[in-house]
Write a structure and sequence with these properties.
Length: about 450
């Protein structure tokens, strides 16, 4: 294992206060994550579309997210993390308010695409900010806490959303807009810019509104570290260097396949349950079970999982996903769905936060936003491709073929993760050396500035 994977246990006070405000803002957003999980039900039951047609409309949102995930990462490196995140959330609010006010599948698809163009930038930018704020030895824990916020919100929100959907789908959009607005207020007041410039000489050369380097203890790599980063796999600056990083892009491609399976839990799963006669509130109960299990087990198991390499944890976790998804092929009762969801939830717990922290450690400091943007595209592309593929398989071959096929894909992903692990471990060791040089330079500059 790399040194960062054998670090001592991270305490709450090891993570900066700014991280916890960012955590709070994300928690609020995910409490209100109502719309996408219920969109397929809305389109089929209220608009009267087929499963494949609903998948195409939801895929329009995914297309928007693909573009904004990548653009958000690039803009975060260029103009600052805070500006991109605030803009993403404010513009998302406007579109969420508008969607219930229009009619017609084409117009809804267009607005969902616009919503994706604004909303998709937030995830990669938040992950970039966590990478900025937290030292490598504490990042694994930080991303576990970050993922815990996501699932704590998901445990609270979908249960209420299921009952709201039975009354009015418009409430889902407007309530989510209100909570995103609350999150924006927290960010505006409590979270400063985390992308800091390292001056060549001591001086007040920080972006307006940025926190002091001594508080954040992070900067993009100074010139002396950039050479080391390029030696660790980079080829010049910009997005081209990220796309040319074969170790990272292989990892991203494998995670894309996993994400295609994962998105079925919020796209085709509610359709299958509806076809079996389950009310929408039953799907809400499953999402709540998923969130509650992650909330209860995520942190207690994080310390246990930290004893093993992240690559081993991911491979085993995705194998569990295969088992849980495969069981859904035989599920008909709510109790059986509870069992299946509980199993693939264990897989989710061990895969997503580990993968995000690996991305942060593979990312060269000067291109951290771009790396997270490209990684975000793996899930965004899955949001575009997954609903279409899932809907087509469901329409033409049925639920059993859908879940058994998804289970088989998960097993392939687990094997690929194991096979490619050594190259990632070598790369992480090299990049962390460059990151340490960057942070040492930042501390030196901050010390000189105070004197």
């Amino acid at each position: 294992m790399t040194p960062v994977e054998t670090a001592a246990h991270t305490r709450l006070r090891d993570l900066p206060a700014t991280f916890w405000w960012l955590w709070t803002a994300q928690l609020v957003v995910w409490i209100g994550r109502f719309v996408v999980p219920y969109m397929t039900i809305f389109l089929t039951s209220s608009i009267g579309m087929s499963a494949a047609g609903a998948g195409l409309v939801v895929a329009a949102y995914g297309v928007g997210v693909v573009v904004s995930s990548l653009a958000g990462g690039v803009l975060a490196d260029r103009i600052g993390r805070r500006k991109v995140l605030l803009g993403s959330e404010l513009l998302s609010v406007l579109v969420l308010v508008a969607i219930p006010l229009v009619d017609g599948a084409l117009l809804i698809a267009a607005l969902l695409t616009v919503y994706g163009l604004f909303n998709g930038a937030a995830g990669p930018v938040i992950h970039t900010m966590v990478g900025d704020l937290v030292e490598p030895r504490h990042r694994r824990a930080a991303f576990n806490y970050n993922y815990w916020a996501v699932n704590l919100g998901y445990a609270i929100g979908p249960l209420a959303a299921g009952f709201m959907a039975m009354y009015s789908f418009s409430l889902l959009f407007w309530c989510q807009a209100a909570l995103v607005l609350v999150s924006t207020a927290v960010l505006a007041v409590k979270v400063p810019e985390t992308r800091l410039a390292v001056p060549d000489a001591v001086g007040p050369e920080r972006p307006a509104g940025a926190a002091d380097p001594a508080d954040l203890a992070v900067t993009p790599a100074p010139p002396t570290a950039r050479g080391a980063e390029r030696g660790a796999g980079g080829r010049g600056g910009g997005l081209v260097a990220v796309l040319g990083d074969r170790v990272f892009m292989t990892f991203a491609a494998v995670m894309f396949v996993y994400s295609v399976v994962y998105v079925q839990s919020t796209t085709t799963l509610p359709l299958v349950m509806t076809q079996q006669g389950h009310p929408s509130s039953h799907f809400g109960l499953l999402l709540t079970l998923n969130g509650l299990l992650l909330c209860v087990l995520q942190l207690p198991t994080a310390r246990l999982l930290n004893r093993w390499s992240r690559d081993i944890v991911i491979a085993v976790a995705i194998t569990l996903t295969a088992v849980g998804v495969g069981l859904q092929a035989a599920a008909a009762s709510l109790a059986m769905y509870f069992v299946a969801v509980a199993i693939w939830t264990l897989g989710e717990m061990g895969s997503h936060p580990q993968a995000t922290s690996i991305t942060a450690d593979l990312a060269h400091p000067e291109r951290r936003g771009r790396y997270q943007g490209v990684y975000g595209v793996t899930h965004s592309l899955a949001m575009a491709v997954g609903p279409v593929l899932g809907g087509l398989v469901l329409d033409h071959h049925g639920a059993k073929a859908l879940w058994l096929g998804a289970s088989g894909l998960s097993l392939v992903v687990a094997v690929l993760m194991a096979v490619t692990s050594k190259s990632r471990q070598r790369r992480i060791a090299e990049v962390l050396a460059a990151d340490a040089a960057a942070r040492a330079k930042s501390a030196q500059v901050a010390s000189l500035a105070r004197t």
